[in-house]
């Protein structure tokens, strides 16, 4: 592989990677829904036009049938007038023939319009089925979009949390917390050590004074008891 082919492959790979990054699922789904709604609008417009043509053909067929019936009625009237002597037979036959010819033409037009009506109605049914399918598809993907948005939100939050947890050690957060814990433990041990040293460093005089205080307290209690006995206030021991 020559250098140009390799460069082309690299560029192609980079382009595909960029496209993959741009393909946001939510945005792509929303765009797809917009496209479907445009297709639905076009289908509804086409359906309306085809239905209008079917209605027009139906009306034309009815109109041509009415005209054909009118021409037949006129032919009958012409022949009746000739029979009564109100109109020359030859003239009546000629005009009646013309009327019957018009009748035939209108009947043919009525049949053509009826055929067009059936064709347009069949097309309208097919278009209506397509419209219903599009509506159902749009409804399905609108619900799917709501689900995708919820899933994307949960996924993003989970990704953020997991990323933070994964980066705790690398960022030194856990190590910092462990150091602070160790520092507090050291401070506690140091405080306890100073307390023990202070206890051990009491002077002999302090110990003597403390012992005398305890003795004085005992003598005061004895003197109080003796005074109570002298006054007759001492409690008699229970037998």
TrEMBL record:
Belongs to the PspA/Vipp/IM30 family. Residues 117-151 form a coiled coil. It holds the Pfam family PspA_IM30. InterPro entries: PspA_VIPP1. Keywords: Coiled coil. The keyword Mitochondrion does not apply. This is PspA/IM30 family protein. It comes from Hymenobacter oligotrophus.
């Amino acid at each position: 592989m020559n250098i140009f082919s390799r460069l082309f492959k690299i560029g192609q790979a980079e382009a595909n990677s960029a496209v993959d990054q741009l393909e946001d699922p939510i945005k792509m789904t929303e765009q797809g829904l917009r496209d479907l709604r445009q297709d639905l609008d076009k289908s509804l417009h086409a359906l309306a036009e085809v239905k209008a043509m079917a209605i027009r053909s139906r009306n034309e067929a009815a109109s041509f049938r009415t005209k054909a019936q009118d021409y037949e009625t006129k032919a009958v009237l012409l022949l009746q007038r000739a029979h009564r002597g109100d109109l020359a037979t030859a003239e009546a036959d000629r005009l009646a023939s013309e009327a019957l010819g018009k009748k035939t033409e209108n009947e043919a037009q009525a049949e053509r319009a009826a055929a067009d009506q059936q064709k347009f109605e069949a097309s309208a049914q097919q278009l209506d089925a397509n419209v219903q399918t599009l509506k159902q598809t749009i409804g399905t993907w609108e619900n799917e979009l709501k689900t995708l948005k919820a899933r994307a939100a949960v996924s993003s939050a989970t990704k953020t949390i997991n990323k933070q947890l994964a980066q705790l050690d690398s960022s030194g957060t856990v190590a910092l917390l462990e150091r602070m814990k160790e520092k507090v433990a050291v401070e506690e041990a140091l405080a306890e050590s100073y307390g023990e040293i202070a206890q051990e460093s009491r002077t002999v005089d302090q110990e003597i004074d403390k012992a005398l205080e305890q003795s004085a307290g005992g003598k005061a209690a004895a003197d109080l008891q003796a005074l109570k006995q002298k006054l007759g206030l001492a409690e008699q021991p229970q037998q």
